[in-house]
């Protein structure tokens, strides 16, 4: 532990420095492996863009969950439901009006994308309110069951034929049902640049990029730029939640987490505080859902299964509940090692062994091992089913973490409640503070 | 009792428990709506009868699987999210046995053991059923129970025992990890295909005024197995020393330990009883439903939680009654709302009941 603290203390720039250096290490590792296997420049850029995307979305979701669980102690396992509400409401608001004969079976309200994003966020927060009103009065494990039930109710509702299409203000709108919803609005990235009158400048950038990736550079540039934008969103989430956590409001939240009865007896209306914190977190989850899926072309309800909730929880627990820096780090480490890592590994192995064809099922895979001790088919099958096995692995990681490090990477740090440094004299002795300088002398056990 | 007294009491009830009154009103309105549609002929009595029967069967499965969850919830103090995957594990182990016995010599052993992964063998062509292959089914039930007990004990030993003294949330999160590891390991081995497992069972029709309610052999098997196991658990808890020890532990673990109850041994016994019931429930669920997929237990789990919470955590009668209530809600809700919302309706009933009566229907009667 002391080694890690020393390391953290030596990194310049405090928490931001820590996050940046971890990100740097991750990217360097990905690029190095790519170079080692002779990836094209385009492939490298794509890998980085995809990696950035997942780091950003998981960091955002972990930050929002940290507000619930790390700060307030609300055990929310319905994250994916709020994400689904965010993107579906956003699509509902922003999709163009229904045109007969188009590819999209249903239309939307045709409002600008930014309006849709706000609507999605607000809708998720409002659903959070609806869930919070009954559930926050209950025990933590009941809240867990209510929230996961809610996320499944949301999924069933979007799956149902009743909401597939209906008439509103005389146009055909809807959520598309089980066959999915085509997101046929202008590409949000293009729309974003056009708002600032930068559409032409952006296309210029794409052309300039053509020098690096000669043929069809636009998708590559798009995803790289989108990844960068998402990182800006992460920074905004981080700033907002850090401010929230350090504000008087955040102090009450931490008091509720530690002992709700005490907070209550000090005259704080804990239910109100919990409801507000829950709504804020749900809104942020909704926005994260929008940002995750709005460029995916189409969404189907069955994407929003509880496994995404599980991913976010692992990310938060890796990073350490209660620490915003930890949430971002957890998101990054989870995305790089557990989420994208195995898939990247599979791509690498596929590239290394282009002729190997994996057996179609466990039976044909295990039969050669039993009959003539040939483990190759089983190995190939294992690699082929890495998307399932990575979930097994994540489950084992979660168990291991709960056994050995339930506080995660940074969860052992305590944030002082006061807004001003309490240990100014000590801080002078210990020049490098790990917690951004506002807390003193608590960076160890 | 005078009218004024009744009125006062009614007003008191309305003031102190507005939720219950509202719930009662909603119930009356729904019942009235059902009566109207029965009279006008939009619903047939036999149709409603079929839904009730279907709901009862579903409720028995949920209740039987809920007993194990309720026991571990009250004695080990955590909501075990891996319970759904214990159900699936029991189902796969039991059905592998059934396939093996029913299909030995008629199909490849590997395909039989993998319960016909990706369409290599079909349960229908093997003629599996209570009447067609009774030996295979009984063997399957026994193996399902035993292997789930072993699995539960193994996981308890390796995963839950080292963190026995942590709080409920830590254990809950750990159990989520167990759930995902188990589920996708099963998908890895048994593939993600949903297979039909049984041949069409013989059925009889009960005539009910304007039509027939069909009851098949697997419904009967479910009633017999679930009923006898529930009775068995009741006797175990009420008549044996082990049952008394379990009830004592659910009430107060420290006190139980001081009194000389070997708590670790009781915990093991809880996993044995709970795991066995869960495995059998998984098997019989698949027998009744006729299809098997790696997600079945997980999908059932939320309904089981709803049932256990509805009935009051720790009460096995609560789990049974709650299971029947959830099963009936899910089945009967199609009378009033579109069928795609039947599951949502069951969750909704749970949430509403949590508000009105958070301690559950059979509250305060721990494991009794």
TrEMBL record, chain A:
- Positions of region (Disordered): 420-445
Q: Does the keyword Thylakoid apply?
A: no
Task: Specify whether Transmembrane is a keyword of the entry.
Answer: yes
Q: What is its main location?
A: membrane
Membrane topology, as annotated, equals: Multi-pass membrane protein
User: What Gene Ontology terms describe where this protein resides (cellular component)?
Assistant: plasma membrane
Query: What CDD domains does the database record attribute to this sequence?
Result: TM_PBP1_LivM_like
Where in or outside the cell?
Answer: Cell membrane
Q: Which residues cross the membrane?
A: 18-39, 45-67, 74-93, 113-133, 191-212, 224-241, 277-298, 310-339
List, alphabetically, the InterPro entries matched.
ABC_transp_permease, LivM-like
Give the Gene Ontology MF terms in alphabetical order: branched-chain amino acid transmembrane transporter activity
Sorted alphabetically, the keyword list is: Cell membrane, Membrane, Transmembrane, Transmembrane helix
Pfam families annotated for this entry?
Answer: BPD_transp_2
PANTHER family (UniProt xref): HIGH-AFFINITY BRANCHED-CHAIN AMINO ACID TRANSPORT PROTEIN BRAE, HIGH-AFFINITY BRANCHED-CHAIN AMINO ACID TRANSPORT SYSTEM PERMEASE
From the Swiss-Prot or TrEMBL record, give the protein name. Answer: Branched-chain amino acid transport system permease protein
Species of origin: Halobellus clavatus
TrEMBL record, chain B:
Single GO MF descriptor: L-leucine transmembrane transporter activity
What keywords sit in the KW lines?
Answer: Amino-acid transport, Cell inner membrane, Cell membrane, Membrane, Transmembrane, Transmembrane helix, Transport
> GO terms for biological process?
D-alanine transmembrane transport; L-alanine transport; L-isoleucine import across plasma membrane
Q: Where are the transmembrane segments?
A: 20-39, 60-80, 111-130, 136-156, 168-186, 220-239, 266-286, 298-328, 335-356
InterPro entries named among the record's database cross-references: ABC_transp_permease, BCAA_transport_permease
Give the membrane topology, semicolon-separated if more than one: Multi-pass membrane protein
Q: Which GO terms describe its cellular component?
A: plasma membrane
Offer one Pfam family short name for this entry: BPD_transp_2
Q: Where in the cell is it found?
A: Cell membrane
What family does this chain come from, according to its entry? Belongs to the binding-protein-dependent transport system permease family. LivHM subfamily.
User: What name does the UniProt record give this protein?
Assistant: Amino acid/amide ABC transporter membrane protein 1, HAAT family
Organism source for this protein? Halobellus clavatus
């Amino acid at each position: 532990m002391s080694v890690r603290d020393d390391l953290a203390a030596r990194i310049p720039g405090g928490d931001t420095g820590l996050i940046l250096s971890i990100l740097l290490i991750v990217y360097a590792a990905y690029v190095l492996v790519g170079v080692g296997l002779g990836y094209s420049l385009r492939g490298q850029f794509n890998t980085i863009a995809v990696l950035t995307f997942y780091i950003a979305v998981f960091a955002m979701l972990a930050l929002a969950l940290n507000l619930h669980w790390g700060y307030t102690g609300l055990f929310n396992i319905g994250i994916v439901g709020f994400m689904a509400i965010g993107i579906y409401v956003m699509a509902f608001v922003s999709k163009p009006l229904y045109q007969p004969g188009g590819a999209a079976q249903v239309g939307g309200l045709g409002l600008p994308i930014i309006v849709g994003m706000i609507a999605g966020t607000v809708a998720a927060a409002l659903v959070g309110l609806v869930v919070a009103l009954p559930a926050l009065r209950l025990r933590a494990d009941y809240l867990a069951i209510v929230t996961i039930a809610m996320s499944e109710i949301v999924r069933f509702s979007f799956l149902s034929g009743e909401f597939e299409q209906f008439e509103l203000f005389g146009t055909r709108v809807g959520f598309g049902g089980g066959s999915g919803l085509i997101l046929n609005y202008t590409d949000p990235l293009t729309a974003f640049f056009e708002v600032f009158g930068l559409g032409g400048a952006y296309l210029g950038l794409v052309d300039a990029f053509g020098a690096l990736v000669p043929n069809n550079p636009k998708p590559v540039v798009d995803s790289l730029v989108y990844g960068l934008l998402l990182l800006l969103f992460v920074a905004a989430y981080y700033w907002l939640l850090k401010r929230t956590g350090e504000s008087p409001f955040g102090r009450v939240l931490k008091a509720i987490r530690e002992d709700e009865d005490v907070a209550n007896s000090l005259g704080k209306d804990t239910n109100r505080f919990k409801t507000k914190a829950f709504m804020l977190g749900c809104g942020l989850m909704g926005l994260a859902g929008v940002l995750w899926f709005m460029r995916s072309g189409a969404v189907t309800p069955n994407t929003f299964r509880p496994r995404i909730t599980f991913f976010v929880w692992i990310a938060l627990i890796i990073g350490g509940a209660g620490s915003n820096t930890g949430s971002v780090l957890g998101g990054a480490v989870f995305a790089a090692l557990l989420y994208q890592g195995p898939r990247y590994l599979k791509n690498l192995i596929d590239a290394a062994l282009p002729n190997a064809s994996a057996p179609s099922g466990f039976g044909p895979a295990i039969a050669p091992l039993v009959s003539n001790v040939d483990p190759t088919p089983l190995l190939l099958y294992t690699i082929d089913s890495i998307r399932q096995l990575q979930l097994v692995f994540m489950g084992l990681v979660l168990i291991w973490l709960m056994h050995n490090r339930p506080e995660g990477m940074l969860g052992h740090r305590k944030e002082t409640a006061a807004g001003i440094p309490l240990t100014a004299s000590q801080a002078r002795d210990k020049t490098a503070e790990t917690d951004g300088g506002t807390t003193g002398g608590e960076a160890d056990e | 009792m005078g009218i004024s007294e009744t009125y006062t009491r009614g007003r008191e009830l309305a003031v102190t428990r507005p939720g219950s009154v509202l719930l009662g009103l909603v119930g009356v309105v729904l019942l009235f709506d059902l009566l109207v549609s029965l009279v006008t002929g939009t619903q047939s009595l036999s149709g409603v009868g079929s839904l009730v029967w279907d709901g009862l069967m579903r409720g028995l499965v949920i209740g039987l699987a809920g007993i194990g969850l309720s026991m571990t919830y009250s004695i080990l103090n955590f909501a075990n999210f891996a319970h759904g995957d214990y159900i699936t594990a029991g189902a796969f182990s039991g059905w592998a046995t059934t396939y093996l016995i029913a299909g030995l010599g008629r199909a490849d052993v590997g395909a039989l053991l993998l319960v016909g992964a990706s369409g290599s063998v079909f349960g229908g062509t093997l003629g599996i059923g209570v009447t067609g292959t009774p030996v295979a089914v009984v063997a399957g039930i026994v193996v399902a129970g035993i292997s789930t007990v072993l699995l539960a004990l193994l996981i308890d030993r390796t995963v839950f025992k080292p963190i026995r003294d942590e709080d409920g949330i830590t254990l809950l999160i750990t159990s989520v990890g167990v759930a995902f590891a188990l589920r996708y390991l099963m998908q890895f081995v048994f593939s993600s295909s949903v297979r039909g497992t049984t041949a069409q069972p013989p059925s009889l029709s009960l005539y009910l005024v304007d039509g027939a309610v069909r009851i098949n052999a697997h419904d009967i098997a479910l009633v017999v197995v679930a009923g006898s196991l529930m009775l068995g658990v009741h006797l175990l808890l009420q008549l044996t020393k082990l049952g008394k020890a379990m009830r004592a532990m659910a009430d107060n673990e420290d006190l139980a330990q001081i009194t000389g109850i070997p708590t670790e041994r009781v915990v093991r016994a809880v996993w044995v009883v709970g795991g066995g019931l869960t495995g059998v429930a998984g098997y019989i669920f698949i027998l009744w439903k006729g299809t098997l997929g790696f997600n079945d237990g997980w999908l059932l789990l939320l309904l089981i939680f709803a049932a256990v919470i509805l009935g009051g955590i720790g009460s096995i009668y609560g789990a049974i009654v709650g299971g029947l209530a959830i099963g009936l809600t899910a089945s009967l809700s199609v009378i009033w709302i579109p069928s795609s919302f039947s599951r949502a309706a069951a969750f909704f009933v749970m949430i509403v009941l949590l508000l009105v009566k958070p301690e559950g229907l059979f509250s305060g009667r721990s494991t009794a």
